[in-house]
Amino acid sequence: MLFTKAHGRAVMDLTTAETVGTIAACTVAPSPARIAGLRLKTRGRGNHTLDWSDVQSFGPDAVAVEEAGRIRDEKDIEPGNHAHATHDPIGKAVLTEAGLNKGTVIDIEFDEQSGRVSHLLTAEEQIPGDQLLGVGSYAVVTTAPQ
Predict the structure, then answer these.
(1) Phi and psi for 62 in degrees, rounded to 5?
(2) Nearest to 30 by CA among 127, 98, 146, 145
(3) Are 107 and 3 in contact (CB under 8 A)?
(4) 129 near 145, Cβ under 8 Å?
(5) Do 121 and 109 touch, CB atoms closer than 8 A?
(6) Per-residue pLDDT tens digits for 10-55
(7) Nearest to 25 by CA among 38, 36, 34
(8) Degrees (nearest 5) of the Cα angle 138, 109, 56?
(9) Which of 39, 73, 84, 112 is the most exposed place for a label (fewest CB within 10 A)?
């Protein structure tokens, strides 16, 4: 699934059957490349994140979470945690470990059941998820092509 297709999808609390937010962005962790967290647009102030491990199901109409208490305020997440907003790859430059610019991440192809990232998409190419080394505040770093 492409992440752009998940953008705006409702997040539902299974205990109350209420919508607690919508998907606004995601964060990614390397080794293996996977979705670490879903950044949410919620009622009220601040930004909130749902760790991928707390996602009960990722359906075509909504994402289910066991309870809304699993959603964390982003200000309580340390920058070293892959669920932190710093690790959101969309819109960031893609650089190889050798410094070659490979474009800008425009989308992420991932498995909605496991969260595994299969490709990072730029306007020029699809970069396999297994080449991801890290996501920082400025750029996404990948292994150099062989």
Answers:
(1) -160, 160
(2) 127
(3) yes
(4) no
(5) yes
(6) 999 999 999 999 999 999 999 999 999 999 999 877 789 999 999 9
(7) 38
(8) 100
(9) 73
Nearest partner of 35 among 86, 84, 83, 1, judged by Cα: 83
* Single-letter amino acid code for the residue at 51: D
Task: Give per-residue pLDDT as tens, 101-122.
Answer: 999 999 999 999 999 999 999 9
Q: Write the burial class of residue 35 (CB in 10 Å: 0-12 exposed, 13-18 middle, 19+ buried).
A: buried
Question: Between the CA of residue 84 and those of 92, 96, 128, what are the distances in Å?
Answer: 15, 22, 23
- The sheet that has 18-29: what strands, in order across it? 55-58, 62-65, 10-13, 18-29, 34-41, 48-51, 72-73
Cut 0.85: pTM above it: yes
Q: Is 49 exposed, middle or buried (0-12, 13-18, 19+ CB in 10 A)?
A: buried
Burial status of residue 86 (CB atoms within 10 A of its CB: 0-12, 13-18, 19 or more): middle
Helix (H) or strand (E) holding 20: strand 18-29
pLDDT confidence tier of residue 146, bands split at 50, 70 and 90: low
